[in-house]
Design goal:
- With about 170 residues, the protein is mostly helical.
- The chain is about 75% helix and about 0% strand.
- The chain contains 8 helices and no strands.
- α2 crosses α8, α3 packs across α8 and α7 packs antiparallel against α8.
Length: about 170
Amino acid sequence: MNFNFLAVFVAALIPMVFGFVWYHPKVLGTVWMKANNFKEDDLKGGNMAIIFGISFILSLLLAFYMNFITIHQTHIYSALMDMANVEAIENINTEVGADYANMMAKYGHNFRTFKHGALHGFLASIFFMLPILGTNALFERKGWKYIAVNAGYWTVCLMIMGGIVCAWV
């Protein structure tokens, strides 16, 4: 199963680009700052190159994993891994390789749309991201506004990331 690394790279940019808009003071930045009890001075300082660099690396990991969440065909490949090694799957002259090639020829492009990827991004945000973010926020004694602002941000990001990764065949 080949990954589209360009799609992963572009999808990894989404949290950074969208974050500039979402957390802008004229959008939800002021609400987010109040929910965190931040003042303008609290956000000054820090090495922004390191912050954005590490954030991009983490976004790359997330975008890479969106392949497994949004693209059903990756599961065909992994299902066959129990039956043979990678070389046998990729060699069309083996029985497993021929089965894999036939399956991909017939079903390789099913559910490979932006809309389908966005749906899986939404589901991942509700069933995976929200419980983690919500649990952390509760123990950090953050309010519902904090959860809503951050969960909304990640829901939109995961939907766009999932859409890009899924649709770019």
